[in-house]
Amino acid sequence: MTFNVYMPARCIYGKNAVIENSQALASLGKRCLIVTGKSSAKQSGALGDVCSALEKEGVKYAVFDSIPSNPLLSACHEAGKAAREADFIVGIGGGSPLDAAKAVAIYAANPDLSPADIYKRAYENAPLPVALVGTTAGTGSEVTGVSVLTNDETGAKKSISGPDCYAAVSFCDPKYTYSVPEGQTVSTALDAFAHATEGFFTAKCEGAERLFAEKCIPELYSCLKELAKGGEISEELRDRLYYGSIYAGLVINACGTAFPHPLGYVLTENYGVPHGTACAAFYSPFIDRCARFAPEKAESYFAMTADRQSAKALISSLTRLGDIKISKEQAEKYSERWASALPRNFLASPGSLTREEAAKILSQVNNG
Ligand code: NAP
Ligand code: FE
Fold it and tell me: Which ligand is nearest to the CA of 100?
């Protein structure tokens, strides 16, 4: 048995984490830029708490509130310019502003870096330190060394990752997730479950990593069953979802994701499907493949969830795709992005995945 884990993010989890740990922000410097989306940072109460904590510590701040979902390189670059005087960056929001904050910290420290060159990682200066405050129970960006960015020129989502993409500190207070609308809550819960599931089935997930997965898979599955009943989402359920999403973030941080993630990007980029729902659209072919190529692990997985048909039925009932249909020709075109090199996530999937198989799976999306 071996394992090889690197998890340098300091993560402070619990109610009132920001207010009670304001010195963790002050330790990062005297001036910061707060990076958010349009409204969720205010609506969730997180921005108010962060401003109070900074004021208490005598830290000056400015707010950049124009980060869109699936953050564009251009928006992060713009925020980077606004952060030239800052000592550190605070990202507040769902995965989009959190991932954006990691990129903003790189642009701010490297004024000559052009937007798309961030992917080449060809810059000299270390990024500014980053503090993150999550407001959705989904991506786990709080604890991952990953930032998923959308290239304005190609419209394609692509991640950067590495030791310099971790937050110096992340604050995880589940109460900020209480204002997330029902549809977004379901999508982000599906994302967290996808992280736990996909990470679990990678070959890497065997040692300490497996403990994180075994902790959150049954818990997230039980939360999804609750969500499927409909009705008001209780605070208790939201607390459990956020807790599970952070564990699932630890799973992908150690193990990465598998093929549903890159296939999901196609649905987000071309049909506007929210990230979690887009990944869940490929749960069924993924789990069938796992049962075929990793039967022993699959047996452990279904013991934590339900039998295969029931698990597929539950995820499918929560995956709201509308009437998307992808023809064989269109799927073939979408798969051109994988012509020169297969993504790591394909190779990490049980049985691996070829470009041709990916195109076939895309063409079958939403076929019941
Ligand atoms: P998001 O794109 O951050 O937010 C989606 C929507 O929810 C936005 O309209 C946002 O509003 C709103 N929202 C967020 N928090 C809210 C709150 N507390 N109350 C009310 N509304 C709220 O969604 P996400 O699913 O969390 O993040 C998705 C992104 O993360 C994708 O780009 C995905 O690729 C990436 N991701 C990253 C990792 C990683 O390891 N780094 C892992 C998985 C996914 P505002 O626009 O006002 O903020
Ligand atoms: Fe994800």
Answer: 1
Partners of residue 90 on adjacent β-strands:
34, 131
**Whose Cα sits closest to atom 48 in ligand 1?**
37
Regarding the beta carbon of 44 and ligand 1, being less than 6 Å apart is answered yes
Per-residue pLDDT of the chain (368 residues; tens, 9 = 90+): 677 778 888 999 999 999 999 999 999 999 999 999 999 999 999 999 999 999 999 999 999 999 999 999 999 999 999 999 999 999 999 999 999 999 999 999 999 999 999 999 989 999 999 999 999 999 999 999 999 999 999 999 999 999 999 999 999 999 999 999 999 999 999 999 999 999 999 999 998 899 999 999 999 999 999 999 999 999 999 999 999 999 999 999 999 999 999 999 999 999 999 999 999 999 999 999 999 999 999 999 999 999 999 999 999 999 999 999 999 999 999 999 999 999 999 999 999 999 999 999 999 998 76
Gap between the Cα atoms of 26 and 88, Å rounded = 10
Ligand with the closest atom to the CA of 251: 1
Whether the CB-CB separation of 22 and 54 falls below 8 Å is answered with yes
- ∠ CA(167), CA(173), CA(175), 5° rounding? 145
Q: How far apart are alpha carbons 237 and 233 in whole angstroms?
A: 7
Distance 59 CA to ligand 1 centre (A): 26
Going from the Cα of 55 to the center of ligand 2, the distance in angstroms, rounded, reads 34
